[in-house]
Write a structure and sequence with these properties.
heterodimer, A: about 475 residues, alpha+beta, nine-stranded mixed beta sheet, three-stranded antiparallel beta sheet, about 20% strand, elongated, B: about 500 residues, alpha/beta, eleven-stranded mixed beta sheet, 16 helices, about 40% helix, disordered N terminus
Chain lengths: ~475, ~500
């Protein structure tokens, strides 16, 4: 009987991150997303003859900052290299990248493993490069059009060592990397929008075997879910091939997440010779001690440090801290709101409760939260002063979540203020009691539930603008 | 009277008659005459255009002529000069521009079919500097395609003839610029020098040509051939013009990462006829096999003339000269193969018709758009950069380049100026060189080491051979020592003029 073989998956990642600079890497054009085709362009980023690249210093600073945050060695004398290949989205037909002397090397990120332990995923290198333009295929006219708005947008490519063993580790690494870069403000790292792109290099080998198997590279992974599915799919595909006695071909594959399968794009034999050589148009990159010290001094408080400070400073539960610090934007909102209203737990409740609920419901990323701390603080003040009740507050918050409205003004304009006029309330309660004799009877017979119904009816009559506690109290007085 | 004085016979004639016609003036002289009201920029442009009409059919110096634009501009500049708004030393003087330097709104072809319809939306920084100083651009001059060649015969738009003998080449690649200056079809011209492309045609056409220190003139807008070697520089009637033009075009430019911040660009301040105590080194390697006897004699005679004026002249071994050519052709071709990738028929320039799909379009457009010499260098460059050959060729060439630079550094510990011939021969006949590219490459032997080391060098006329063709003297300086070169060249030129008048 044949033994059932056990396989181990070996995974390394190549992650491209679009840097959050205002201008492109080698010219002054805007990096803003969107915009009519070829409006964020100039002679440099469209590859006009005679034009020359000039490095945007902010790109270098961000790349170094990411390198420092991931424990890399910073290359003090580096260069840019040209990667030569012909494609219409690449206006010079070479991409300015780094091969021989990348800006960062030999770093790592610590992740938690499934068993609850910790392991370090090594970072082989981080290099800077320019993004390409975008081809638009017009099927009606049978032609292709090119938009160079993205051409020259700065990227860093973070190349990991083949240190990950399953999808969970990959996701843990990516989440940690993303959070770190977001904390640095170096990028928003959105997979869906392509400001973070991960290519998965994967091979399998029998457990215990030392040598790596033949690897494939998977592209077009637009979400963590797609990455997870692609890893599982590719692992199975490779094991099936091995079990069938077939060879794995070293190739690049494209993942189709809708169909849950991958297609071969090109094999190693088709690989082009990129004829890399140092770009003679760019001066060598010299990182001085002063520059390094300056970037080091500017490094932000990262998550671990932030969590410790929250415990100390705000006295909110660890559970809250964990969620709030899981996104830089969330943490910023928390701190800024607390700075205004000095009520950490209440702010935390809004973020953990309604904010998280609406984010999930509306499929919004924490980074895209755009209500202001000022308005959240005002909303908390409105509930504190009992000017609005809890339900109204939630209703106002939802509008604020979408449009960042000013809550006081909104409450006034929509007449949502709690009615504190005891006369009006008493009148409403008398009417409810008169109109629901059965419920009154039930309550008097000991059915506590009936009181709830009567409160509800009163709230309805008051159009929600009464303080439920007060309604409760007056009702009880009337019925006793 | 020495043989070396023959080269200035035309100047002698000019001085003999005393009265000067506008077209015989140097650029500086013309600018002074305009300032003093003796003539106008408009007259200068009119007369130059008349001269062009007369000579151009034979010489073919220009690829593009902008008669109307130049006249319009001349009127504007003249008004500004009269209003005191422009007072730059060369204001109002007509200039010709090599066709690989981008001029906004004016065809810029690199003498290639592939850029035959290219009109830039921007001007090179050197052009912006010229325009700010009141220059009037007449048009764009012919050249070897993409500056690849030493004869101006690889142009896609026909050859340029040498005004000294129309059966001969003007040199290259800035042959159109050199010939235009020599023929009086402009007062001065801009060229570019990657391996001798300013100095060698200057030598062949009997004019002054200078390649500045790498980084002195912005490369922004110069359509790159070998990016680490290219420099824009002047081609002029004499040394004083050369200094004035260089002063006008040199600038630190934030758009060019290889641009240098220099405080010493007041080059005209070096126009002093004095070489007392100047240490001149003559590299014996430059006088070996392959050097024409008459050229050798003229150059050594020039050294003697400078010695007579007080310079200390010594012979020495520079070494490594024989390695300069393979090193240059490796590095320049490698960079060119990448620089010329952008000419693909997608965004601008020539696109083939009747193609099947993208790759066929690339192949056909480039095969039809580029000439033979350009294709030869693209292939050579692609080969030396390809996987498995990179270390053996490209990396090794970079190492030799560093050694050549060191050899020059050592020489400049002992000498202020290195003196030698600009080219091994005078201008060859049309068609002679193209048949044997290797021989043509060898013609660059004295000029290309200068580019590899990033040094400044100037070529000044130093005589005429038996065939009546001009000979060029090359003076090489250490980095940023243009002033020493200009002072030496100026002293020599003055000595020639004095000897000619006697």
């Amino acid at each position: 009987m044949a033994m059932i073989k056990e396989y181990e998956t070996v995974i390394g990642l190549e992650v491209h991150v679009e840097l959050a600079t205002k201008t492109k890497i080698f010219c002054g054009c805007s990096t803003a997303f969107g915009g009519a085709p070829n409006t964020h362009t100039c002679p440099v980023c469209t590859g006009m003859p005679g034009t020359l690249p000039v490095l945007n210093k902010q790109v270098l600073e961000y790349a170094i900052a990411v390198g420092l945050a991931t424990g890399c060695d910073i290359t003090r004398y580096g260069k840019f290299d040209r990667k030569n290949y012909f494609y219409p989205d690449n206006p010079q037909n070479y991409q300015i990248s780094q091969l021989y002397l990348p800006i960062c090397r030999n770093g790592g990120i610590e992740i938690e493993t499934q068993e609850g332990g910790r392991k370090t995923v090594g970072i082989h290198e981080i290099h800077m490069e320019e993004d390409a333009g975008k081809l638009i295929h017009d099927e009606w006219d049978e032609c292709s059009l090119v938009d160079y708005n993205r051409s020259g947008v700065p990227l860093i490519e973070i190349v990991s060592e083949p240190d990950m063993r399953d999808a969970k580790e990959v996701i843990a690494y990516l989440e940690k990397l993303r959070l770190l870069i977001q904390y640095l403000g170096a990028s928003d790292c959105k997979l869906q929008e392509g400001s973070m792109r991960a290519d998965v290099n994967l091979s399998v080998r029998e457990v215990g075997q030392k040598a790596f198997g033949t690897r494939t590279e998977m592209k077009n992974l637009n979400s963590f879910k797609a990455i997870t599915r692609a890893i599982e799919g590719e692992r199975e595909r490779q094991i099936d091939l091995i079990e069938a006695g077939e060879a794995i071909i070293q190739e690049t594959r494209r993942w189709d997440d809708a169909k849950g399968i991958s297609y071969a794009m090109r094999s190693k034999e088709d690989a082009q010779d990129y004829r890399y050589f140092p770009d003679p148009d760019l001066a060598p990159i010299v990182v001085s001690d002063e520059m390094l010290a300056k970037i080091r001094a500017k490094q932000p408080e990262f998550r671990t440090e932030k969590m410790a400070r929250y415990r100390e400073e705000y006295g909110i539960p660890d559970y809250d801290i964990d969620i709030i610090t899981s996104a830089k934007r969330m943490a910023d909102l928390f701190e800024e709101t607390v700075a205004i209203c000095h009520q950490p737990k209440k702010v935390s409740n809004w973020l953990m409760g309604e904010t998280m609920r609406l984010m999930k419901e509306k499929e919004i990323d924490a980074q895209d939260l755009h209500f202001s701390p000022q308005n959240l603080a005002k909303l908390i003040a409105l509930t504190d002063s009992k000017a609005i009740n809890g339900n109204v507050a939630k209703e106002v918050f939802e509008v604020m979540f979408d449009q960042d409205i000013e809550p006081e003004q909104y409450v006034e304009e929509h007449g949502l203020r709690t009615v504190n006029d005891a006369g009006a309330l008493k009148k409403a309660i008398e009417e409810v009691i008169a109109g629901n004799p059965q419920s009154v009877e039930d309550y008097k017979n000991g059915k506590e539930k009936a009181l709830g119904f009567l409160v509800g009816q009163t709230m309805k009559a008051m159009k929600g603008k009464a303080e439920p506690a007060m309604v409760n109290q007056i009702l009880k007085e009337f019925l006793s | 009277m020495g043989k070396w004085t023959d080269g200035v016979s035309r100047l002698k004639e000019r001085h003999r008659y005393g009265l000067m016609r506008i077209q015989d003036m140097t650029a500086v002289e013309l600018a002074v005459a305009i300032k003093e009201g003796k003539t106008t920029a408009v007259d200068a442009v009119r007369e130059t255009i008349a001269r062009i009409e007369e000579k151009e059919e034979l010489y073919h110096c220009y690829v593009t002529l902008d008669r109307e634009g130049a006249l319009e501009r001349a009127k504007d500049v003249q008004a500004k000069i009269e209003a005191g708004e422009i007072s730059a030393p060369l204001a109002g003087v007509p200039v010709a521009i090599k066709d690989n330097i981008c001029t906004k709104g004016m065809l810029t072809t690199c003498a290639s079919k592939i850029l035959g319809n290219f009109v830039p939306a921007y001007s090179a920084q050197a052009i912006c500097n010229l325009l700010r100083n009141g220059a009037i651009i007449l048009g764009k001059t012919n050249m070897d395609e993409f500056a690849m060649g030493s004869t101006t015969e690889t142009s896609a738009f026909g050859v340029t003839r040498n005004p000294w003998d129309p059966a001969r080449v003007p040199g290259g690649s800035s042959g159109g610029s050199a010939a235009a200056v020599a023929a009086g079809e402009c007062y001065y011209a801009l060229g570019s020098d990657t391996g001798g492309s300013i100095r060698q045609p200057a030598s062949f056409c009997g004019v002054v040509g200078m390649k500045p220190t790498y980084g002195t003139v912005s490369r922004y807008g110069l359509i790159a051939y070998g990016s680490s070697l290219d420099q824009i520089g002047p081609l002029t009637k004499d040394v004083a013009d050369c200094a004035a033009v260089l002063e006008s075009i040199a600038s630190y430019d934030t758009k060019d990462s290889t641009s240098m911040r220099r405080q010493d660009t007041d080059f005209t301040s070096a126009l002093i006829a004095d070489v007392k105590g100047l240490r001149i080194g003559i590299p014996d390697d430059y006088f070996k096999e392959g050097l024409d006897g008459e050229v050798k004699a003229a150059v050594l005679q020039a050294a003697k003339a400078l010695e007579e004026k007080g310079a200390i002249v010594e012979h020495f071994d520079l070494s490594l000269v024989e390695y300069a050519i393979p090193t240059y052709y490796t590095i320049a071709a490698a960079e060119a193969s990448s620089n010329l990738e952008r000419f693909d028929g997608i965004k601008y320039g020539y696109r083939a018709t009747d193609y099947k799909g993208l790759h066929h379009m690339y192949k056909k457009s480039r095969s039809e758009g580029f000439g033979e010499e350009v294709k030869r260098r693209i292939m050579l460059g692609s080969f030396v950069l390809s996987s498995g050959y990179y270390d053996a060729y490209y990396l090794k060439a970079l190492k030799v380049k560093a050694l050549i630079k060191k050899a020059f550094n050592d020489a400049f510990m002992k000498y202020d100026v290195i003196l030698g011939p600009t080219a091994p021969t005078t201008a060859p006949k049309l068609g002679e060189s193209l048949a044997d590219p290797l021989k043509m490459y060898l013609g660059d032997i004295y000029t290309i080491a200068v580019n590899l080391a990033g040094l400044p060098a100037i070529s000044v006329p130093c005589g005429i051979d038996k065939a009546g063709l001009p000979i060029g003297l090359q003076l090489i300086g250490d980095c940023f020592q243009e002033k020493k070169l200009l002072q030496t060249a100026y002293t020599y030129e003055k000595a020639c003029r004095e000897a000619a008048i006697i």
